[in-house]
Automatic annotation (TrEMBL), chains A, B:
Residues 30-291 form the Aminoacyl-transfer RNA synthetases class-II family profile domain. GO terms for molecular function: ATP binding; proline-tRNA ligase activity. Its EC number is 6.1.1.15. The keyword Mitochondrion does not apply. PROSITE patterns: AA_TRNA_LIGASE_II (PS50862). It catalyses: tRNA(Pro) + L-proline + ATP = L-prolyl-tRNA(Pro) + AMP + diphosphate. Keywords: Aminoacyl-tRNA synthetase, ATP-binding, Ligase, Nucleotide-binding, Protein biosynthesis. It comes from Bombyx mori. GO terms for cellular component: mitochondrion. This is proline--tRNA ligase. One of its GO terms (biological process) is prolyl-tRNA aminoacylation. It comes from the Eukaryota.
Amino acid sequence: MVLLLECGLVRPTTSGFFTLLPLARRALDKLENLIKTCIESSGAQRLSLPALTSAGLWAKTGRLENAAAELLTLEDRHNKKYLLAPTYEEAIAELLSDLKPISYKQLPIILYQISNKYRDELRPKHGLLRAREFSMLDAYGAHASSDCALQVYGRMATAYEHLFRALHLKVHKVEAPSGDMGGSFSHEWQLAATSGEDQIKVCPSCSHAALLNDEGTRCQSCGKDAEILQSIEVGHTFILGTKYSEALEATYCPPSGPPLPIIMSCYGIGITRLLAASLEALSTEKALRWPKAIAPYSAIIIGPKEGSKEWNDHGMDQVKLVYDALNSVPALRSDVLVDDRHGLTIGKRLLMADKMGYPIVIACGKESSSNPPRYEVTIDGATQLCTAQELVQILSDKYAHLEYCT
Amino acid sequence: MVLLLECGLVRPTTSGFFTLLPLARRALDKLENLIKTCIESSGAQRLSLPALTSAGLWAKTGRLENAAAELLTLEDRHNKKYLLAPTYEEAIAELLSDLKPISYKQLPIILYQISNKYRDELRPKHGLLRAREFSMLDAYGAHASSDCALQVYGRMATAYEHLFRALHLKVHKVEAPSGDMGGSFSHEWQLAATSGEDQIKVCPSCSHAALLNDEGTRCQSCGKDAEILQSIEVGHTFILGTKYSEALEATYCPPSGPPLPIIMSCYGIGITRLLAASLEALSTEKALRWPKAIAPYSAIIIGPKEGSKEWNDHGMDQVKLVYDALNSVPALRSDVLVDDRHGLTIGKRLLMADKMGYPIVIACGKESSSNPPRYEVTIDGATQLCTAQELVQILSDKYAHLEYCT
């Protein structure tokens, strides 16, 4: 979190609330778009429910009382009570009920949101990892049978795996208790990170992963010694059964007989949390490292220092030339930043760029005055001198097989 | 609003709050992305401030009291008071103050958000046109001089004009009072719509537009008779001056002398309101019409009715063929919907497609069993029979000169 502050990515406003400054917001845009692509590939359709949910709706499932301490609640000018939703099982069940009659032929339906959620944490901490307002994916499956629910659950798990693979993050799917949510079973999605507050055991032999509990450190699947890792929960998925659909009369019409309660499943990913957790997992104490797919910019170009020989030779001309060259690589289009703080030395700005963790850093140093001009190009930590033409070739090759989430 | 309900686009939850169902949400995604492109072309950078703003911050500018009736407020578990922000002048001024020292060399800065805003309307009405939770663009300029503020104001006005042109909407920029916001001057952006609650007068001779007030119906600019139009306010822009920066000590360092208060400007567009207003302006009582750039899907394909001759001949094969053909047109990729309600006649589904207002409707009717198969293609209301190859040619030509907002 200190690095996020130092790098000008976030600012706290009051306890547990954060402003995402432009670079962080840009990374979040990329992450949200990647999540949309992955989740929609499973057939999910986006919708938006109001953040203000009628408190009466939550009273019907008993959660208004059970979750009261962590709910932010308010009254409107007519003294009607609302809560700022942390999750939407009730609201989705009410919507399904409102859409009656739903035929079994119309199921399954998968609906999702990407929106801000609210939780009045007793002690907000670790910055974006436990904020009171946070961006979250929440998806809901509506099914006519348990078998169908399990099929959709499998499809959504595949979408999660695609997402984490696209981010090059090692996220472990572990069985978990369903807790206050109810339902028959659930999985947490845990990202290994030394600063994490959770603990999981991962078997090096059979890859089975589980929450670390009092059943010891052996793998429950193959019996071998498991590895213990600190981790951060970035997602949670549930088969909910009929808890919410029964309470809110969300039914479907089967081929024959009376309407039956819809079987529900739900799927969450803490998006701002995932952003922060991936930085926790990949960065060092001194420098940020991003999953490449969500780095605020893929490349930064550092121009010569004002008054230097290079500045007098070509000013910003070489910067513009490199900028155009990079933008000619389709994968980098509109994703290149120019560091125009000419008052600072190249060395100082190189240190700042390294700290921020841009995947590609290009400095117009001494050799930019040679013929042909050559630039100091650092890709994934390795530096080389190359011409604009060589640079385009290297990057075109590098991004030729871009891993998309499909 | 009735049509929006009938077409399954929105559902009210409680008074003034709406669920955007998948088709409406998809249109909103398109509109938000278009707004991002237009606004960023003016140099604006996106950020996200928390929706929960400390009430104390608004007390400092006097707006906590002045706007109290329309503010949704709450207390957290520690009895700290917050409001759900309808707008962010205070929060932006606090952020600028927090980023001190800002040099005049760093200005102007333009920051923007796309997020949900809140207003506790006394009588929410007209559906999305006056909701209590709504998606809104809010942008803020920080300037070192009035001249610079005016320059940025002009740039943002150009971005607005690009946006409305991309939507093919006739939006009039009219001088307006600054009201509670303060500042030196402002403009409203008014979309002509017979159902609108505002009135503007537009001069047919010199195109000057103004709010209709007691200064009569003559053009204030050229003196000729002006036309009176009903209209809907979709945007509002202000030069704010130093009201907020003085109250919250947001200063910059000029070339010499002590720090000075930053001159601010701000820019709003009600995004869900614009979506609804554009439908109000373009639709009839019986059928929705969308700005093409934000129709939920550009095209819909209607397959044969189950049991018909065509169904028995080729089932869904022709639908798949047309689907692939449409997706081969770059502008239509991933923007084509298949109406697979085989139980309904083609005629009934054509009526529904017309009511929903898809720009391109393709029916696999009787001629889809001919050799070569031909489809009933309706583009902008005109119907013709064509083969898949002809269809691709027509649409490739139609979309060859797509108007982007750049």
